[in-house]
Amino acid sequence: LTAMGESSMDPTISAADSTAQQDSLFSMMDVFLISLITGLFTYWFFFRKKKEEVPDLPKMQSVAAPVRDSSFIEKMKKTGRNIVVFYGSQTGTAEEFANRLSKDAHRYGLRGMAADPEEYDLSDLSRLSEIDKSLAVFCMATYGEGDPTDNAQDFYDWLQEADADLSGLRFAVFGLGNKTYEHFNAMGKYVDKRLEELGAQRIFELGLGDDDGNLEEDFITWREQFWPAVCEHFGVEATGEESSIRQYELVVHTDVNMNKVYTGEMGRLKSYENQKPPFDAKNPFLAQVTENRKLNEGGERHLMHLELDISNSKIRYESGDHVAVYPANDSSLVNQIGEILGTDLDTVMSLNNLDEESNKKHPFPCPTSYRTALTYYLDITNPPRTNVLYELAQYATDAGEQERLRKMASSAAEGKALYLSWVVEARRNILAILQDMPSLRPPIDHLCELLPRLQARYYSIASSSKVHPNSIHICAVTVEYETKTGRLNKGVATSWLKSKVPEQGGSSSLVPMYVRKSQFRLPFKPSTPVIMIGPGTGIAPFMGFIQERAWLKQQGKEVGETVLYYGCRHEREDYLYREELARFQKEGVLTQLNVAFSRDQAEKVYVQHLLKKNKENVWKLVNEGMAHIYVCGDARNMARDVQNTFYEIVSEFGNMSQPQAVDYVKKLMTKGRYSLDVWS
């Protein structure tokens, strides 16, 4: 208390002094308070302003960010279209069919557009009825084992989850499939069924194209009945004959910066010079070939093993995945086309879409040279489809040749038969057609517009990333055969791969590639037994599987029985990976190695015969061991024969009827215990 008194007042100060001091203290307090209030007000004023600006930010952002043009309805309204043709395409054929249907529409006073479902919001289908005489057509390919194509995956997912009311939607579906596969045209069938379930109105029956037969003829037959159904539904009539309408216009670049010219890149300009991950179909990685060796010791065929270096690419793969490679056409074929058409192939040009609203500005990356387009971007080795012949017919100066081309492109039975024999069965490519029709000399730019895109080729990866993290192995056989016209036709990709020289630098050893994920997977538990059936190059994924099982064993894991059924023609000619397989068997990784040599004896022996021979062991592995079965190779005969053999084994040892055995095997497939990686 004394201390407080001392500190608060000096006892020697008089009363007057005390009053004066209080006046002075008040004035100082006033100044302090005024300063404090002013400061607080100033702070509040600026703070308030900032606070007020915060809600404005989203408004500013929403103005700055353009709305993503994902509404095909708005696009159709803007451009006066009433037919939209969606395509689910893996190799380009469904896209080609969609383009043809959208071009057809003008003959009936309608306007069509082809559309990639990946680029649009398909929930807008419920709004299509806002457009007069509107129709949605779906050209849907089935990929692999009944799967949607990559670009139709989102659409497929939406259809599965959707509860939309599509009662105002009119639709038609054409499916592209292959009868040698278990799930023939699964995607086309599903889209057709699901759209109807959601209330949409089917205006023409589902078309089922079969690539194992004649896909082109299936499409033409469906299309020639589809359009009359459309006419009847909408009360419209054909406006006349088919006419050739160019979709792109040619621009020749005489003075162009060569740094702005595409030289084979799939997407980004100069992407091969300046590689940036992630790598995919539109941005492939340039892999160096580090090994390219012949696998077979004799015979006419060339079977090869290639190794691609993926170091520093950040590419990851699993055993069973596929590697896609972009090949190049044979330069001699390209040069011959240039010579026949009297063209300077090094002319730099662009083909620009005449429809400015189209998402597809060019048929392939432009600007580029004719040589680059014919080498890297266009398919010049497959027989051209009928629409190409129809469009080219106008350029044949000989009346007989022109009539022949038009007849082959027609829907008449005689025309279809002629196309089948003269083009398809004779395997005439565009060069052969130009050679055999001397008066047919189309402008090269129109030919480039008409030819389909050169597609990537898929190979089952023949290695395990656990053992080879920086390398992808390919096992392939070169395709080479003589046609009915006496010409030697060569497979584009395998001939190109065969020519790759390891570690020489430059394009001679580089392969544009990416990895496509697969469902063909080893069991989650290493202790689960596996039965692998893969004759010929069908052994490819199983080399990866066996490498992985060996690696797991080295890690101290318990690895189940690993059984291989392999087949080839002759033991001394084309027994692929003989030394490697013998080593794996010696090490105890490969517990059974069953090899069928089909032509080493009078009666042919195939893998299914060996399965029958070991049927008791096979049943025990499947029934008691819960083994996973894997089949890789030819879909047309081998895969079917193997499946029928399993029906027999299951029926005999499971005491089941044939239908019950079939159901048993189908359930194995559903559970992921019977997997296929097949091709036709």
TrEMBL record:
Membrane-crossing residue ranges in chain numbering: 25-46
Cross-referenced Pfam families: FAD_binding_1 (PF00667), Flavodoxin_1 (PF00258), NAD_binding_1 (PF00175)
Domain Flavodoxin-like: 83-227
Names of the cofactor(s): FMN; FAD
UniProt xrefs under PROSITE patterns: FAD_FR, FLAVODOXIN_LIKE
Protein known as: NADPH--hemoprotein reductase
GO CC field: cytosol
Enzyme class of the recorded protein, top EC level: oxidoreductase
Species of the source: Alaudala cheleensis (Asian short-toed lark)
Residues covered by the FAD-binding FR-type domain: 282-523
GO molecular function: flavin adenine dinucleotide binding; FMN binding; NADPH-hemoprotein reductase activity
InterPro entries cross-referenced by the UniProt entry: CysJ-like_FAD-binding (IPR003097), FAD-bd_FR_type (IPR017927), Flavdoxin-like (IPR001094), Flavodoxin/NO_synth (IPR008254), Flavoprot_Pyr_Nucl_cyt_Rdtase (IPR001709), Flavoprotein-like_sf (IPR029039), FNR_nucleotide-bd (IPR039261), NADPH_Cyt_P450_Rdtase_alpha (IPR023173)
Gene3D superfamilies hit by this protein: 3.40.50.360, NADPH-cytochrome p450 Reductase, Chain A, domain 3, Nucleotide-binding domain of ferredoxin-NADP reductase (FNR) module, Translation factors
